[in-house]
Design brief:
With 593 residues, this protein is an alpha+beta fold. 45% of the residues lie in helices and 12% in strands. Among the domains are: 12-49 and 201-273, no CATH class; 86-151 and 175-180 and 279-303 and 419-470, no CATH class; 307-417, no CATH class. It has helices at 14-42, 51-57, 67-79, 95-117, 123-134, 161-176, 211-224, 307-328, 338-346, 370-386, 403-414, 418-442, 473-489, 494-500, 506-519, 522-535, 539-550, 575-579, and strands at residues 85-87, 136-144, 181-184, 191-193, 202-210, 230-231, 243-251, 254-259, 262-268, 276-280, 332-335, 359-362, 446-448, 451-453, 465-467. It is extended, with a radius of gyration of 37 Å.
């Protein structure tokens, strides 16, 4: 009887999850084998000589240059940004919607930054590395940390006041700074998704977990007693740290875990989204005669087309190195007792005693010709032409002497990574939208790095855009100076300046400028001083200082003007002297000094 399952209505069982895993593993099988080959090149472990070649030529030492590793790492470091910039679009032109949008932007950006610090590796750098290395990447997030906001601690029996106060202090910090979101970059071979859909409806994470962790997960689900859920108790037995092979199944409706081919729990996915997002780098292309999606032709990384060239280069450099070693330390041929000569050298003898019929000859060193180095240069050119210009790694091209020539080459090389950067932005945008979804479903304010957001700031609209931009500090400074000049001359508004310079919270900056303008008013400043003096009990001292400023000092200047308490004249010049026709300039400056 064929297996029947109602995808939209029924809770998935073990048989359905196993069927889904088998289907996805079959799709990705060849691609994963190719990634294993890529790993050998990146980690410099690929065999340069076959067994037949090694047997025919004897001992052949292998030298593995760092070209494959450097190709990936330089591209990631120089062409892909890791710090996201979030832009939220207001739902209308009202000031409230603009303020709400400006509240969302710094909060989501703070979540991205804080979540990256909670992972062993920088999340978005790892995403970019996977895209360039394997031609494919997966982001897991946002994943909510289990347990929710920390509960207020209860006092234990016989607990001292000091110990309880310490626990309360730690709880208050954890309660205020609770950040439930995690964003991870798992290895793309550990997550199985349908490759034809950018936002698939189901996926499986293949991971080995400790038995004690699986036991904790099952016990947590048993305590929840969630409606429509299935939970089976898992025991870690005698070895809590034995590895258990697990399948973690996700769909828009369900979340399940299988351990050692046994279904541990199935629960409703109340968040309504799949925590896995995936994308291809854009270097691959399907074959014309493909009737189904052959993923290995889409998941093409930066070094896939140059693997043969990388191997040829490593063989050439190994050959040159072996030739150098042979020339520096040639074999010796001895007529007579070679063991006696070796023992004399081992004792450190400066003079070796040979018999009357003994002789020592050296093997002629191998010839190192120029064409050997020229052959390696041809391979090096093929590697560079198949990846990107060495300018991006900070190296000057041969024949490049001017800034203009370098800029042209840099601009042409950077275009190769435009599609990869856009895919990273699409992944981050999807993660940011799901963060807003979670904030609204949690239905409580959250504060991350001093930025607070409330569900009312979202208004059921999860739209935003995340950008990864590589900013040249010199060009950015020039652009800001040009925009500032346009604002000063009235050709552009401050709003345009903030938009062009990517100000994350323009509404708050606008209020700060209004505050600054307000405090420039002398009446407002005086009122503020009066209020602060009243607050700190300094009114008598303020009144005394004001009285002293108003009283004359009793002194007069050479012009006959009364001096103030500081011994200086008022700032108004002598009107009589200034108004005399033809009097010219006074003999000295105002005040007679």
């Amino acid at each position: 009887m064929p297996y029947e399952y109602d995808y939209d209505e029924e809770r998935p069982d073990a048989q359905y999850i196993e069927t889904c895993v088998a289907h996805l593993e079959d799709i990705w099988q060849e691609t994963h084998r190719n990634w294993e080959r890529v790993d050998l090149y990146y980690h410099r472990e690929v065999a340069l000589w076959s067994d037949d070649e090694r047997d025919a030529r004897g001992d052949m030492p292998e030298y593995h240059p760092a070209r494959a590793t450097a190709t990936i790492d330089h591209a990631v470091d120089s062409q892909l940004a890791y710090e996201p910039r979030v832009e939220r679009f207001p739902t209308s032109s009202t000031e409230k919607d603009k303020r709400d949008a400006d509240h969302v932007e710094p909060f989501v950006q703070a979540v991205f930054q804080e979540a990256a610090l909670l992972e062993p590796v920088l999340t978005w750098k790892q995403v970019g590395k996977h895209l360039l290395m394997y031609g494919y990447s997966v982001v897991e997030g946002p994943v909510l940390a289990t347990g929710g906001r920390p509960d207020k601690p209860k006092r234990k029996r016989s607990e001292s006041d000091e110990a309880f106060e310490h626990r309360m202090t730690l709880w208050q910090n954890a309660y205020k700074t609770w950040m439930p979101f995690r964003i991870r970059a798992p290895h793309p071979a550990h997550v199985l998704l349908e490759p034809t859909n950018k936002r698939p409806r189901e996926g499986v994470k293949v991971v080995d977990r400790y038995a004690i962790d699986v036991e904790r997960l099952s016990k947590e689900r048993m305590k929840r007693k969630q409606k429509d859920a299935f939970v089976k108790e898992f025991e870690a037995d005698d070895d809590p740290y034995r590895l258990v092979h697990c399948y973690e199944y996700w769909s828009y409706e369900w979340h399940a875990l299988m351990a050692d081919n046994d279904l541990i729990f199935v629960e409703p996915n109340t968040w309504g989204y799949l925590p896995f997002k995936h994308a291809f780098a854009g270097f691959g292309q399907l074959r014309t005669n493909s009737r189904s999606v052959e993923v290995k032709y889409l998941a093409v990384g930066l070094i896939d087309p140059i693997m043969d060239s990388l191997k040829l280069q490593a063989q050439a450099l190994s050959g040159i190195h072996n030739t150098l070693i042979d020339a520096s330390f040639p074999d010796r041929y001895v007529r007579g007792n070679a063991e006696d000569i070796r023992n004399q050298k081992a004792r450190g003898a400066r003079y070796i005693q040979l018999g009357p019929n003994d002789a020592v000859d050296f093997e002629a060193p191998p010839a190192i010709t120029r064409w050997m180095f020229e052959a390696e240069k041809l391979v090096d050119f093929d590697i560079e032409y198949g990846t990107f210009s060495r300018n991006l790694a900070g190296l000057r091209q041969i024949g490049t002497y001017t800034v203009g020539q370098t800029a042209i080459q840099m601009n042409a090389a950077e275009k190769k990574f435009i599609a990869t950067g856009q895919q990273m932005e699409h992944l981050a945008t999807a993660v940011g939208q799901d963060i807003l979804r979670c904030v609204e479903l949690l239905d409580e304010p959250l504060t991350v790095r001093g930025h607070t957001i409330r569900p009312s700031d979202i208004s059921h609209d999860y739209s935003l855009e995340v950008k990864f931009e590589i900013i040249d500090p010199v060009l950015e400074l020039q652009r800001r100076q040009v925009l500032a000049g346009e604002v000063q001359s009235g050709l552009a508004s401050r709003t345009k300046f903030w938009r062009e310079t990517k100000e994350p919270n323009a509404s708050e900056e606008k209020l700060n400028i209004l505050y600054d303008e307000l405090f420039r008013d002398p009446t407002i400043r005086q009122a503020f001083v009066q209020e602060m003096a009243r607050k700190f009990g300094l009114i008598p001292l303020l009144e005394q200082a004001q009285k002293q400023r108003q009283e004359p000092s009793g002194l007069v200047s050479p012009n006959g003007e009364p001096l103030g308490p500081s011994g200086l004249t008022p700032s108004v010049p002598n009107p009589t002297l200034r108004s005399q026709p033809g009097a010219g300039a006074p003999p000295s400056d105002v005040g007679g000094y």
